[in-house]
Amino acid sequence: MDTPPFPRSKVQTSSMLAFQPNKEGVKAKDPATVVIFGASGDLSRRKLIPALYYLYEDGFLPKRLSIVGFSRTPMTDEAFREIMINSLSEVVKDPGELAQHPLVQSLHYVAGNSTNLDSYKELQQRLTELEEQYQIPGNRLYYLSVAPKLFTPIIQHLSQAKMLYDKTDESKWSRVIIEKPFGTDLESAQALNRDITAILDESQIYRIDHYLGKETVQNILTFRFGNAIFEPLFNHKYIDHIQITVSESLGMEGKRGHYYDQAGALRDMVQNHIMQLLCLIAMEPPSGIEANAIRDEKVKVLRSLVPMTPQEVAANTVRAQYTSGIHNAEAITGYLEEEGVDPLSKTETYVAMKLGIDNWRWAGVPFLIRTGKRLHKRVSEIAVFFKQPPLQFFRQDSHPDLCLLQERPKANRLIFRIQPVEGISLSFASKRPGMQIDLEEVKMDFFYRDAFQERSPEAYERLLLDALRGDASLFTRSDEVEYAWRFISSIHQGWNENPTIPVAQYRPFSEGPEEAKELAPLNVRWQRIQNM
Ligand code: BG6
């Protein structure tokens, strides 16, 4: 990992009074039980329990809350708490007190087999006892942090064991959070949607895409629709092209090879996270900020992505794998030698593509997207490139004595920095001081770390809180997932039908394969992958 999980932002000395948000409106108020399926796994240790811990510390959780881990490994409540204390102690300030912490005290554990109905009967019994103990009226948030093949069986068993309530039941609610991946192609996503909506109402299903929980991702909408100056320019008349980059320096970390080799960058990152970023940067203003109004607009963007023909796939996509190499005097394993990876695998660890959004606002504007593992730096950002001014006055060839600039000035760029540095920057041309006219690109930068004293909550904090509050705005709806798959599946199909489309190679910790450069339209260069 590039950064430790849950870094607390450094509180800066400032003469300003600390901002005191009014938390009442956003607190989760209903007493509830969070049931985590796959509780002994990585996600629960690294993300879910720390997120619940911080929510507790910040006063967002209901007074009566219990957390029940469920997975195969037999374990007592105490042993489960011990594991969670260990991982919490890496991220909290005062690990000494953890054992007595109310959040840790509210952790319980039930061992069982998620494909066996008897285990659900035991789970149900334990949950009922705990609900009595904590005086919880039955509200339950089930978190499915399990292999995708278990999503449907778990929901079916929960239903058979009468552990899911009708959405019209006003005395208590049940909601289900489903982790990614939601399907592996259009057909499997449709089948999954069909199976689970046969049991649950859409309003009870929370499909997670953790990118939507990131503060800087949510800020794309507030920036676009909470300000008046940029939105009128956000269209084909003023924007030349948009680049979305999600670059990671991580590789398979010794344990992800098996999963990743079945997935690849397109399924792992583009179908979900990058498609969501694309929707937020391209969508129309919603009619309001409620979940369905926002999702309606995102779906319209996805519907305007025209699936590619195999010829278009060949022309508009580049897939690649990282090779072995040396980095900082260390030998780096190539993708094909990673544990769990088929040595003949064609799975892409990098993908770049050029796509268009076929609607009134964006017709003709290229969107360049790229993502990859083992790249130079961990950087996620969206760069919006504006068109050049209609006339180029400030060029040496038009005014040899007056102007020093030899090339065209750089186009204005608006960059949404998602991570690791969080902020927004705008670059524009400015006159260099002096008697002649010389233009230089300068920047106006806004960094969260300088502007705000509050830390940015981790994505899982926000998403768990929203699910406890019943707000699905930052979760994906069934049609969103399916339209995203419709587009992504057309690319897989193009690659499968056309084996001559090469799997290019790139050096570990480079900026990706050379071939990606050729995707960019004339006069367009990819942004450098660099940290601030
Ligand atoms: C996950 C992918 O969904 O997102 C991982 O499965 C990837 O492969 C991760 O590393 C990236 O998330 P983040 O928050 O670190 O950008």
Measured distance between first and last alpha carbons: 18 Å
Architecture of the largest domain, according to CATH? 2-Layer Sandwich
CATH superfamily of the largest domain: Dihydrodipicolinate Reductase, domain 2
Instruction: List ligands, each type once.
Output: 6-O-phosphono-beta-D-glucopyranose
Assign an overall shape: globular
Radius of gyration: 25 Å
The secondary-structure class comes to: alpha/beta
Q: Uncertain regions: pLDDT < 50 for 5+ in a row?
A: 1-17
| Number of discrete domains | 2
Number of discrete helical segments? 13
Q: Secondary-structure element order, as H and E?
A: EHEHHEHEHEHEHEHHHEEEEEEEEEHHHE
Adjacency order of strands in the biggest sheet = 16-15-14-13-7-12-11-8-17
Q: How many runs of DSSP E, i.e. beta strands?
A: 17
Q: Biggest β-sheet, characterized? A: 9 strands, mixed
- Give the overall average pLDDT: 93
Q: Write down the CATH topology of the largest domain.
A: Dihydrodipicolinate Reductase, domain 2
Helix content: 25-40%
CATH top level class name of the largest domain: Alpha Beta
Structure overview:
The protein has two domains: 13-179, NAD(P)-binding Rossmann-like Domain (Rossmann fold), CATH 3.40.50; 212-388 and 445-519, Dihydrodipicolinate Reductase, domain 2 (2-Layer Sandwich), CATH 3.30.360.10. 31% of the residues lie in helices and 19% in strands. The chain is built from 13 helices and 17 strands. Strands 16-15-14-13-7-12-11-8-17 form a nine-stranded mixed sheet. It has a six-stranded parallel sheet with strand order 3-2-1-4-5-6. Strands 9-10 form a two-stranded antiparallel ribbon. Helix 8 (257-282) crosses helix 13 (478-497). It has helices spanning 42-57, 77-88, 102-105, 117-134, 151-160, 186-197, 215-225, 257-282, 291-303, 310-316, 448-451, 459-469, 478-497; strands at residues 32-37, 65-71, 107-111, 140-144, 174-178, 205-207, 239-247, 317-322, 325-327, 330-332, 350-355, 367-372, 379-386, 413-419, 423-431, 439-447, 503-506. With 532 residues, it is an alpha/beta fold. The two termini are 18 Å apart. 6-O-phosphono-beta-D-glucopyranose (BG6) is lined by residues 180, 248, 250, 268, 380.
